[in-house]
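Q: What would this complex look like in 3D?
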Amino acid sequence: MEISFAKRGEWTVVTVQGRIDTISAPDFEKSMREQMTQGSNRFLVDLAKCDYISSAGLRCILAAGKNAKASGGELACCGLSGMVKQVFDISGFRSLLRIFDSPDDAAKE
Amino acid sequence: MDDELAVKIEVPAELKLLRPLNLFVRGLMEQAPALAASEKLLDDMELVFNEAFMNVHDHAYRFGAKGRLSVEIILRQDRLEFRFEDEGESFDPNLIPPPDPDETGERGRGVWLMRQFMDQFIYRSDTNGKNLLRLIKNLPVPGR
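A: Here is my prediction, written as structure tokens for the whole assembly.
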């Protein structure tokens, strides 16, 4: 998994490439914690280049979302497709987090 | 492929073995035409394998015991079956509710995902302390 961060308006866009699973979830959590320490609390996780997510991946996104919310921010996701989209749907994540089509879509609001 | 391909391996339920096992199982699954033809189906089945492994790692052996795990993969053209056998803590899968849309609890989604992606989810715990989880997926056979 590769993770990168970029500012876009109010959002910190978190681009994830590859897999978010048991092995990579701790790296995701660590990177998100560092971003929060630096003052970000409004995250848009772009999963367009993420081709695989497990329940451990869902868990770390949800945990980051809780932390963002606790500091008055938010975590939303975008770019879902394929099995990642299906896992989100099956897990009921669409009602837990806001989902946008793309970073452009999120930036419009 | 032959009529049936069955492979049984016994490993310690350790996290460092998950990635190599995933790669091995994925390669094995590609022997079935229905799986080789669909990256999506391969991803789904890899997810189920991953969740079942983590279930044993996180729950059956949750008290730190480095337990053994026996994994059997039985592949036919029209069917894939994973059998996970461990000697750890048992659980009652019927007590695990589906994810609640209003509940932001972070656990319990693994079993739900396995159930959703597979056609059969059969769990049995016997009196000798062995737990067996059978996960079965019916595969589409081209031309049938």
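A: To summarize the key features: Chain B has a mean pLDDT of 89. Residues 39-60 of chain B form the longest helix (22 residues).
Q: Very helpful, thank you.
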